[in-house]
Amino acid sequence: MQTLEWLQQRQRQLQANRHRTLCILQGDARAAWRLIQPICEQHKTLILVPVFDDADSAWHFADHSNLKHQLGSEYQHAVLDLNHGIHANSLGIISGLLQAGGILFVIAPPDWPEIANPLDQRFLNSPVQPHDCEPWFYRQLANVWQEQAIWLTQSDTKWQIKNTLDFSASEQAQQEHFSNGAATTEQNRAISKILKVAFGHSKRPLVLSADRGRGKSAALGLAAVQALLQGKQHIAISASLPEQTRSAFSVAQQWLQNSDDTEHLNIQKNQISFKYQNETKLLKFYAPDALLLNKIDCDLLLIDEAAQIPTPLLTSLLQNYHRTVFSTTLHGYEGSGRGFELRFTKTLNQLTPDWKRLHLKQPLRWNANDPLEQAINHSLLLDAENRITDEQPNLNEIEIRALKGAERMAYLPQLFALLVKAHYQTSPNDLQQLLNAPNQLLVALYQEQVVGVLLSQSEGGLRPEWLAENPNIHGHLVPQLLNRQYAYKDALSLQSWRLMRIAIEPEWQNVGIGSQLIKAWQDSARSQQIDFISSSFGASNDLIRFWLRQNMQPLHLGCKRDKASGSYNLVVYQALNNNTESLQQVAQQFYQQLPYLLSDELKQLPNDQLALIQQAKPQSLELIRDEDCLKITRQYLNLQRPFTTSGIFISQLWLSHCEMQLSEGVQNLLNDKLLKKMDWQELAKSYDLTGKKQAEQAFREHLKQLCQALEK
C-alpha cells in the first residue's frame, strides 16, 4: 500500500472515530509537502508559516505572531514546518483549532530533534544564539511523540512507517439535543447554572472550567441567548481578545437564526441584537478594561478565558459586576487555568463566599481519548501534576539542589506543575524557556518531591568592544533598564543574575522554603564572583516584604502598571562586591526622584507599598549636588534617559538658576513643567501644541537654552 493511500485510510478511521491525531513527517520538507498535499487541498487547512512560496494562496496561512487571532476558527488539518522553528504556545493553539477527523502534520528535518530552534531567540540574551543551546525542548517533544503520534521517515524517495497508532473504533459519544441548544448533559447543566447566576441571588458568581473542546464557550453563547429570551435585556461578554469569544457568538447566532420567535436579527462584529416580544435584546463584547472605565449597565457579565486576564482586573470586575460567570480553560494553549483557579479561589472566598464551580469533562468537538489532545497535553506537560505528601516538611530535611540537563528532565513534570500553580500566566512557552534558555535552576526537595523552585538568568557581562560593535542588544532586562532609565551603561558590563521565577508549593508556603532557596542562590552568586543580583516583579505588600527580608533593596519603580499583574513593576537588587559603587548611586537617584514621581506619574501608588519602599531607603540619602543636576540634565537632553528618572534633578537645576536672564517664554514653560508640575498633556494644551511628543520637544528646546546660558 502506498504511503498516501495508507494516510488517507488513517484519516477515514479518524473521521469515523471523531478523533484527531499528530503525524510527524521526518525528511525533506518538499517531499513531505508533496506527500500530504492531496490530503490538505481537499479540506480547510491552516499552514503555520508558508511551507513553500508556490503553495496554494487559497489556503489559510498564519505565523506565530498572529496565531492567537485564529482562536474560535476551525480547520480540518494544519501543517507546521519545524525547519522554521516552533513556539510551544503555537502547538497548543493549533491543536485547539482542529476539528474531529483532523491531522496536525509536523514536518521535521532528518536530524531533528538534535537541531537548534530558531524561535528560541526570544528567550536568549545577546550574544547567545539558538545554536548555542542544547535542544532539550525538542527532545521532550520527540520523547513523547515517538509513542503518541504517527511517525514517517524518508528513506531515499520512499516514506517508511516508523511508528503508528491504534486506530481501532472508539466508543461513540452520544450527541444529545436540548431545547436550549446544548449538545451534552454537561453543557445543559452549565447553561442552567449560568441562568441561575442571571436570575438568582446576586453576588454568587460561577467559575466554569474545562479542557479545550468541551463546549465551554458555546455554553456561554447559548446561555446568553436563553437569558435574553427569559427576560434579560443586555448581556456583556468579555475576554482578553475578541477572537476568544468567536465561538460563543457563533452558536448564539446559529440558534437565533433557527428560531421562529425572534425578529430583526442584526449581526455585527462582536455584537448581536434582535427583538423578542417587542423588546430589543443585546449581546455585546466589551474589553475588560473598558468594563471598568465605563461602568456598563448589563444584566449579566460573561468572561471567557478568564485565566488570561490579570487577577487584579478580574477582582475589580467581580466587585463592580454582581452577576458574573468566569470561564477558563484548564489545559489549553495558555496552560494557566489551574493556577488561575488556585489563586482566584482565595479572592472569591473573600468577596463572594457563595460562589459556585462547575467543571466540564465530556468532549464535544471530538470524542474522548483523542490522540492529538493526549500528544499535545503530555508533550507540553499541560496535564502535569505535582503530588506531594500532606505533611509539613522539617526545614532541616529540605535539600537544595541545582538541576542541569538530564537531571532537569527527570524532575520536569513536577517542576512545571509547580510553576503553573504559582504563576497564573505560566504558558507552554515557559516550558520551552525552562528547557532551552541558559538559566540556573534551583529546587527545594523534600523526600525527592519538589516543594520549591527558583529560576534565574545571567545578565550583563558584555565586553565594551562587543557593545561598541553591537548597539542592538536583546534581553538583559535589568542592565538595559538601568542603561535606558539612568544612563548607567556599566550595568551591561557587570556580571549579574536576575531571578525570573520563584514558586513554593501553596500548602507549604510561609515556612521558610523560599528564603532557603534565595540564600542558596545568593551564596552561589558570591562563589561565582557575580557583581549583583536582582529581581523584577509586580509590586505587592507580601512580595515587597519578602524581598526586603532577603536583604534586597529597591532600585527602580516603573511608572506604568504591568499588563500581567496590574501592579507597578519594582526592581530590587543586592550588591555582592565593590564593583557596584555606581549602582548604589542609581539607588540614591531613585529615592531622590521618588517624591517628584509621587506628585505626578505615581499618584496611584498604594500608600502601604510606598511605606514599605520608604522603609528601605538608604540611611544617608545624599544631598542633590548642582554638578549632578547638570550632568543628568545633559543626559536627558541627549536622549540618554527619560524625564521620569530625571525630573527632580532638572527641577533642582532650574530652582538654583531661575534668576538667570532668559526669555519670558522660556521661563514660563520651565516654570509650568518643573515648578507647577504640569503633565505633558496640560503643557501641550497651554502652549497650543499637538500632544505629549511635541510638548516634550518644546520643553527640551527651552531647557537647552538654560544649559547654554550656564556654560557661558
TrEMBL record:
Top-rank lineage group of the source organism: Bacteria
Residue ranges of every copy of the N-acetyltransferase domain listed in the record: 398-579
Residues the record lists as binding acetyl-CoA: 549
Electron transport as UniProt keyword: no
Annotated binding of ATP, by residue: 181-182, 187, 365
Location relative to the cell: Cytoplasm
SUPFAM superfamilies named in the record: Acyl-CoA N-acyltransferases (Nat), P-loop containing nucleoside triphosphate hydrolases
Keywords for this protein: Acyltransferase, ATP-binding, Cytoplasm, Nucleotide-binding, RNA-binding, Transferase, tRNA processing, tRNA-binding
EC number annotated for this UniProt entry: 2.3.1.193
Pfam families, per database record: GNAT_acetyltr_2, NAT10_TcmA_helicase, TmcA_N
Family annotation (InterPro entries): Acyl_CoA_acyltransferase, GNAT_dom, P-loop_NTPase, TcmA/NAT10_helicase, TmcA/NAT10/Kre33, TmcA/NAT10_N, TmcA_C_sf, tRNA_acetyltr_TmcA
Catalysed reactions, semicolon-separated: cytidine(34) in elongator tRNA(Met) + acetyl-CoA + ATP + H2O = N(4)-acetylcytidine(34) in elongator tRNA(Met) + ADP + phosphate + CoA + H(+)
Main location per the UniProt record: cytoplasm
Keyword tRNA-binding appears in the UniProt entry: yes
Family: Belongs to the TmcA family.
Its job: Catalyzes the formation of N(4)-acetylcytidine (ac(4)C) at the wobble position of tRNA(Met), by using acetyl-CoA as an acetyl donor and ATP (or GTP).
HAMAP family for the chain: tRNA_acetyltr_TmcA (MF_01886)
Name of this protein: tRNA(Met) cytidine acetyltransferase TmcA
Gene label: tmcA
